[in-house]
Amino acid sequence: MFLRRLLIAVLCVAGLAGLGAYAWRANSAPPASVPAVAQGAGNAGSGAAQPVLVEVAPVAARTIVDDVAAVGTLVSNQSVVLHPEVAGRVAAIRFRDGSAVRGGSVLIELDSAVQRAELQQAKAELMLADANARRVEDLFSGKFVSSSARDEAASRLEVARASVALAQARLARTRIRAPFDGIVGIRKVNVGDYVKDSDALINIEDIATLKLDFRLPEVYLGRLAPGQALEVTSDVVPGVTFPAVVDAIDPLVDAEGRAVLLRARLANDERRLRPGVFARVKVLVDRRDDVLLVPETALIPAPGQMQFVYRIEDGHARRVEVTTGIRRAAEVEVVQGLASGDRIVIAGQLKLRDGAPVSVARPMAASH
After folding, report:
1. pLDDT, position 204
2. CA 87 to chain centre
3. Is the C or the N end of the chain the one with fewer CB within 10 Å?
4. How many Å apart are CA 86 and CA 115, to the nearest integer?
5. How far is it, in rounded angstroms, from Cα 118 to Cα 112?
6. pTM over 0.70
7. DSSP per residue over 320-360, as a string?
8. Share of the chain residues as helix, strand and coil, in percent rounded to the nearest 5
9. To the nearest 10°, the Cα dihedral for 279, 282, 283, 289?
10. Given the DSSP bridges, would you call strands 60-82 and 182-184 parallel, antiparallel or unpaired?
């Protein structure tokens, strides 16, 4: 038992001595040379950076129009609902519903038998008064009657003439005429109906020209003026823009909504639009030339509400801080930082840094 323990102790001491000798030799050995493959890889890493493939576009200078959008309702240039001036029975209707009529044409006739009889009586009295006045004038020339008799006969003649005019006016009121050229609506009476002077007979609309009433915030008041150009669109005629102009500006600003009422005018010769239709209006408040525009994709946001783009200079990307203006149709106005004709990166910016070399991708050829 004792011999076994002694043997184990001897073996442990021998092992420790061998391990120490190996460690001393390893620390004393010269460093191994770097393999040729590793050296080649290091030389390749220390060379120039590879160009980044990007897409570019030129900065364009164009004319733009600043506008503000609003909504409104179309109204007739002229509109009226016709009422009879006297009560009576409808004798004739001289129009078709929804047809065009000329100003002054008779639309509805009321029974006028009584008015015609009154006119006939007034004319007869006028003839008698005229003959009596001539007879008295002849007698006065022969000094057979006094001047007062002549004046009385002349006065009766004037009264008779006024009676004829009054009877003619009463007869004219039995004929309802169109006050202007337009389109009549759907009539509310038929032949034989008895109507009063307060009854609505027919509406007539002048739609060759339409008006558009709309409101804009008061902040635009200083940029509005009569004659200003507008663009009007409606779902009734999709895809069509109708030119219009500001016709009038209300001098009173709404104190509650802080808005000003405007009225525009637009031609409707083809009658494609109708009164009462909802419309969208775009007011052209300003026109500017030589405005620099870039695609929205070129802009890169930076801390502090700053924005920048990469401009191509001698095959390298240079970071340029820009100040922007309005945005429209996927384009942004550049107020400061770029010039017309500058080439800027519009795709591939995420791989760029200031001064990095770039390779410009060629645009794809259009397919036939």
Report:
1. 94
2. 47
3. C
4. 11
5. 10
6. no
7. EEEEEEEEETTEEEEEES--TT-EEEEE-GGG--TT-BEEE
8. 30, 40, 30
9. -160
10. unpaired
Strands 100-101 and 175-177: unpaired
The answer to whether 99 and 207 are in contact (CB under 8 A) is no
C-alpha–C-alpha distance, residues 145 and 154, integer Å: 14
Q: Are 323 and 334 in contact (CB under 8 A)?
A: yes
Write down the pLDDT at residue 331: 86
C-alpha–C-alpha distance, residues 59 and 334, integer Å: 9
Residues in Cβ contact with 217 at an 8 Å cutoff, skipping those fewer than 6 apart:
258, 259, 260
For residues 272 and 237, the answer to whether their CB atoms sit within 8 Å is yes
Residue 290 per-residue DSSP state: E
So what's the pLDDT on residue 17? 59
Q: What is the mean pLDDT of each run of 10 residues along the chain (368 residues)?
A: 58 59 50 38 51 88 83 92 92 92 93 91 92 87 84 90 93 92 91 90 93 90 87 91 92 86 91 91 83 88 84 90 84 88 87 87 54
What tokens does 290 get? 């030589």
Cβ proximity of 332 and 325 under 8 Å: yes
What's the confidence (pLDDT) of residue 10? 55
The answer to whether 230 touches 245, Cβ cutoff 8 Å, is yes
Task: Detail the DSSP E strand segments found in the chain.
Answer: 52-58, 60-82, 88-93, 100-101, 106-110, 175-177, 182-184, 194-195, 202-217, 229-233, 242-254, 259-267, 278-295, 300-302, 306-313, 316-328, 331-336, 343-347, 358-360
pLDDT value for 3? 53
pLDDT at res. 330 = 83
Tokens of 231: 């663009």
Cα–Cα distance for residue pair 316/149, rounded to 1 Å: 117
Q: Are 97 and 241 in contact (CB under 8 A)?
A: no
Q: Give the other-Cβ count within 10 Å of 307's Cβ.
A: 16
Pairing state of beta strands 358-360 and 52-58?
parallel
